[in-house]
Amino acid sequence: MHPRNPYNKPPDFADLARRYPPLRPHVFINHTGSSAIDFKSLPAQKRLTEALLRLDYGLSLTLPDDRLCPPVPNRLNYVLWLQDIVKSNCGSATVRGLDIGTGASAIYPLLACGIEHTWNFVATDIDERSVQFAKQNVSKNSMDSRIAVERVQVDGPILQLLHTSLMDFDFTMCNPPFYSSAEDVSRSADFKEFGPNAVCSGAEVEMITPGGETNFVARIFLESLQLKTKCRWYTSMLGKMSSIPELVSLFREHSVDNYAITEFVQGQTRRWAIGWSFQDARLPDTLARFSNQALQNMMPSRNTLHHVFLGARSAEILASALRNVLTLINGVTIASSATPAIYDHSSAMLHQENHRLLISLFVS
After folding, report:
1. pLDDT digits (tens, 9 = 90+) for 233-292
2. Quick one: the chain helix, strand, coil %, rounded to 5?
3. Fold designation for 56-298
4. How far is C-alpha 349 from the geometric centre of its chain's CA atoms?
5. How far apart are CA 325 and CA 86, in angstroms?
6. Residue 65, by phi and psi: left (phi above 0), alpha (psi -120 to 50) or beta?
7. Which among 293, 265, 298 has a CA at the least distance from the CA of 81?
8. CATH 3.40.50.150 region(s) of the chain?
9. What is the distance, to the nearest Å, from the Cα of residue 21 to the centroid of all Cα atoms in its chain?
């Protein structure tokens, strides 16, 4: 889970029900004496989503029974990762995002705009029913000036709004249909977002696409090869870890080495996200890589080196050598910061503590 996600611990359902009365009929005391809800109940899931959005973010949604009911903690993980990417790579005063397949809830742009008041979105979907509910939810929350909802053609480019827009975008985001067929859904042990006993209300248009999520994200990537810097970072969530090697292989086939992979963990649910960029600016390793032995060969190259120096003199020599080399590079400004060594007068010995050296490069 993202470290800034406030749902690191299960919510107090009794307290939520007290503050959001429509949730009350769905809360009970379980065998451990704790308050709980039945995640196999779609009404309970919907009331929980409504309660979290209303109480924590001041958002009000209308959620149809025949479309996905989005779990707030899981969706928030993705938004917070994008927030980190924007802060790391994007210096514009107004941030523009494209949400591909926004769904009936339009939860990603609503959550993001509720958190970041300088963000604006274009939200797209191929499903007319989802588009109508998304527009209703945007208007209900007085976000019409910041979130535009557009229906796009099912047989057109996925990034068709980028092709036609006069504006550049800072990021795209997408929660793609994970599965290639109804049989693929039934075989999956991880298609239920709230846990192994949850109910899923997603329509076929939200759950299934030819070739599954790997093919869908690959289509976005191939379209992005034509658009390139029209967008700073192209990103998508993934429901299957097995999709990552296939997509990374596609990146490498096209010599795209500026990419990022992360993992979102929420209870028993694991999701992943992948992003790529055609610009020079790289993300720090904390945003672009995560620890998973099975995927280490898939991770982008490290751009942060950690090395321990046992003593101040070694770090000073290294810092001097680095500065001499880096000052020869046109357009590079250097700022350095080193933690001072600690000298113990009573023993007249220099503590052999880690001496940290940080050199920041600014390329104009």
Report:
1. 999 999 999 999 999 999 999 999 999 999 998 877 899 999 999 999 999 999 999 999
2. 40, 20, 40
3. Rossmann fold (3.40.50)
4. 48
5. 30
6. alpha
7. 265
8. 56-298
9. 31
